[in-house]
Write a structure and sequence with these properties.
- There is one protein chain.
- Helix 1 runs parallel beside helix 5 and helix 3 crosses helix 5.
- The protein is built from 5 helices and 5 strands, in the order βαβαβαβαβα.
- Helix content is 42%, strand content 21%.
- With 168 residues, it is of the alpha/beta class.
Length: 168
Amino acid sequence: MPAGTTPWVMQVRLIGVGRVKENYLREGIRDYCTRIMPYMRVELRDIPDERIPERMGEREREDLLAREGARILAATKGTAIRIVCAVDGEPWSSEDLADMLKKWELAGQSRVAFIIGGPLGLARPVLSAATHVLSLSRMTFPHQLARLILLEQIFRACRINSGEAYHK
């Protein structure tokens, strides 16, 4: 194998509903993707969001989430591990995430998808299809910022697993 070539084993797909609109977030996301690349393959997938009407009943909300959910599930096809990010999920430390990534890689489950829903959350079928439900924090973040936070944590996990220094 040529010098400088990375034999990626892990393939992480970050799936988010909607586009990241703020330039500073896009730059941060791009920076962390570049930092992650020596350790694993990372792919970003934006799922088109639905227009949210000003007034919406529960049935319309469920229909909207179902349409987004169908696109999310299609984007995770062939993925061994699906991790849904939700405020009521399980809180993992950076070390927990590193351990899980290493465990999956060693078990040959190298295709991992992290899913971040839109402003209305996620459809029940997406939650049901999740291998894990992860809470990034008990605080609420804009969905676009959650992508950056998650990528930083994946980078941190890569550094931990490589035995490299990373600030605490």
